[in-house]
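Collaborator request, handled under Task 6.
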Amino acid sequence: MIKANFVNHTHWDREWYFTTMDALVLSEQLFTEVLDELEKNKDANFCLDGQISIVDEYVEIHPEAKKRIQKLVDEGRLFVGPWYTQTDALIPDAESIIRNLVIGIKDTERNYGKPMMIGYLPDTFGFNAQMPTLLHQVGIDNFVFWRGTNFNRQMSSLYFRWKGLSEKEVLAANFPFGYFTAQIDLESKRNLKEFVEKRYDTNVKFAVDHGDNQEVLMPSGIDQMNIIKNIHDTIRELNNDSEYSTDISTYPEFIDKLRLQTNLPEYSGELRLPTYSRVHRTIGSVRHRIKTENFYLEQKILRRIEPLVVIARNNGVNIGNGLLLKLWKKLLECQPHDTLGGSISDNVAVDILHRFKEANEIADGIENTIEKKIAEYLNLGDHDVILFNTDPYKFKGTKEISVVASTKNIKFDGMDNEVLIKSKQYPVRHHILMMTPRGQEYKDEPEYYQLSFKGDVQLPAMGYKVIKFHETESVSELLPDKVSREHAELIKGSVTVKFENGHLNIQNSNGKINDFIKIIDSGNDGDTYDYSPLRNDEETALPFNSAFVESVNNQSKALIVNGSASLPATLKDRLSKKPQYRTVEYSLKLSIDQFGLVDAKLKINNSVESHRIRLEFDSDINSDEAIAQIQNGFIKTTNKQTDQDWNKEFVEKPVNIYNFDKTVSVTDNHKSLTFLGKGMKEYQYNNGKLFITLMATTGELGKPDLAWRPGRASGDTTNQGHIMMPTPLAEELGVNEFEFALDYTSERFSEDRISRLTYRWLGQSISYQKQQLNLFIHRLDNKIWDTDDNPTIPNNYSLMELSDKYLVSAIYPSYDDTDSFIVRLSNPTNKKIDIDLNDFKQGKIVNALEKPMKGHEFIGPYDLTSIKCKF
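Structure tokens returned to the collaborator:
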């Protein structure tokens, strides 16, 4: 007998075309109504969208509701958690997705009771192939979702076993027609028989036919929709009209029923096919500034702030978990699918960028506090500099140091081959107030310089050391040529990068590639959900006009290539016979770093609207596939033939444009080319050319009838009662900056090598000088006062040193114990790695929730392992 499992819920975007504050106002009535109805009808239940942040925000304005929520959760009739926010599943770092779950689950347990341990993402725009692995980090073995499936090409049933690259699997339940598959609103109630005949039974039959399923999941709810009143009366009436039997159910109950099924099909891979719903395959480059801010903040937290807090705690500086949690929550509030994707109004975009600003202020303030307090404990003078290494490996290589000094001519003891790369002069200031033991005095403040040096140092693992500087007669300084040239070159080791007659060429032991980097432009007829090609438009390579070299002691260190292009000002101008043009200027700075990478910094001063800018790399490699790094793993992508009548099967064109996390590689048996990007998330590989999307700008939230996405406008802008919504901020006018690198080697691609290379490339330079000349270089310096009874700490310190066989995903203070910290190890390769717990400080294997795990003293292929260590 076929049984339909009816689940009443609401889907709650925290922001979209409306703001988070708008959503909070909506929750005032809706959440209160949910509590009232559940207390009135003891046989009803409700799912509050699987993200605890929205409950926290409601309780903040209704503190009296907390006990009501706790009681309903305890009764198993109100379902909250496990996420903090409903994450995007393609753009965030693996650690962000894990931490979203950890924080969401622990917050739910602490404030409300047992979380709904369902991997519930009802509206996310597709899923990376490692979601099963990430869910298992917190003990979740199931997944309930909407988008990305195709039951002819991927799996034969709505319900299946989804395996990550690690072979860890989850029970997956898909509702192909959305979380509103069985949506019963007031109009449906009034016309229930018609609803059952034309919608409900049809959707049940689809689920039965695709997998011969006898138990069918039927979610009822939609965005910001309230609870169904007197639900048993409605279901009783529905059963009278339906061919099928329907029971009121919950997501956990349905998953328990799936556990009893032994013949579910298996599937491995990402879920991004737009068969029954849109997945917005090109949203990875919309509002790139949001994605870039997200990337840098993730790296700041993971590679700087959290390890610094661990180092600080063992040296008498105690930064509480509350501040770190607030920092993480600011980031996680920026990572839901609409938010991070960029399919939002400009009003919301302003809010998101403000949250990034607030999060960076918290992060920088934590770092500032730690640095100054440790410098104080060490009693450092103004010619001392403390250097931190937040990685658990000894460091030998190049770091950057920033100081303030009375002259540019200084030399560091403990740094070799130092080069002055940046300087700013502050002139003498007269009659400056000084606070002294004698009271207020006025003196002249001398001239000084704010300086940045780059040089070679050796640092202890997961710790710090102090070095000194002194005045000298001269300094090695990075200086630009006075004249731009038509020919210029950069040489380091076996690598030569040349600018020749407007072309950028590269040569190494693999040979020479002409035009190995191009910047290409095309019109964008899309919106904040998708790029769409403009009819009769073609991509155009933007010219490089001139170049010059920056050098130290007549040795080239950087090649700066400049260009400008006259482009149609707007989308209409690209179609006009008499277009208006604007000039776009850009500058590309190339250097060869300590790892042999061609390091690049690109600035584009964007002055035109509605266009897409991509990088094009000639790989000179004969291969049909690209290898994309994703969350703790790698996947291969091969271009698939797209039928001309693709819209008979798909609701948007399944274009061969993919997402990646940090790197994309192309390889053959003799060489490989790898692109390493900071915040870029979208690539295409075709005929030996690798394309990386930098930005796709647009002036509309949603547009109908796009070339790659026919029909209605996404974003509801052509729905009844809605309006078209301009998004001028999504044009991203002004200066846009991008950082990336290229690894061009005679070695075949290796997952292990690229993972470690990327980790080193993203390493941080952290230095601090305790000085009185400028207390606003670090914002809090002028308000962090010295204290009495300081602990005695060593000038050189190392908390932990790990073997280089381990790759670290995160090091952070325990959420449960003040005397412990967590080391999460990553294995993004296909080989198992054994763990020797003697390498860790009283280490014990735990999961990401810090629950003990037995028999796991290894890291499986494409998996992660957490170790709890003692200070």
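The cover message to the collaborator said: "The chain has 15 helices and 46 strands. The first helix runs from residue 20 to 40. Please let us know whether this matches your experimental observations."
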